[in-house]
Amino acid sequence: MIAPGAEYTVEDVLGDAQLAEVTAVKNGKVYHMTDAFEAWDSPVPSSVLGSLWLASVLHEEAYTPETFAKDTAEFYKTFYDVEIDTSLLEQ
């Protein structure tokens, strides 16, 4: 997983010869965490969404991206009284 705000991209990681033997790189399973709303990897209440996002990426069959989008919208509505555009969560 590449954290929001990183100065490198998924393509950079996948193309780095020093990382070529890393299983995630070999399998093309490198992901960039969205920062469409805020950084979910920092110590803020919404950081729980970072864990849920990762679950939806790694275990899509158990926690679908659609469920994640619904849960994220509900979180922002409940805690911040904000309606979000869940299309920004699409990978």
Sum up the structure in keywords.
91 residues, Methane Monooxygenase Hydroxylase, Chain G, domain 1, mainly alpha
Structure commentary:
- The protein contains 4 helices and no strands.
- The protein is mainly α and 91 residues long.
- Helix 3 packs antiparallel against helix 4.
- The two termini are 13 Å apart.
Outline the biggest β-sheet.
none
The coarse silhouette is elongated
Order of helices and strands: HHHH
Per DSSP, what share of the residues sits in E-state strands of 2 or more residues? under 5%
* Low-pLDDT segments, ≥5 res: none
The assigned structural class equals: mainly alpha
Number of DSSP-assigned strands: 0
What is the residue-averaged pLDDT? 91
Radius of gyration from CA coordinates: 14 Å
Helical stretch tally? 4
Overall structural domain count: 2
What fold name stands as the CATH topology of the largest domain? Methane Monooxygenase Hydroxylase, Chain G, domain 1
CATH top level of the largest domain is: Mainly Alpha
Q: Kindly report how far apart the N and C termini lie.
A: 13 Å
Indicate the CATH architecture of the largest domain: Up-down Bundle
**Percent helix:** 40-55%
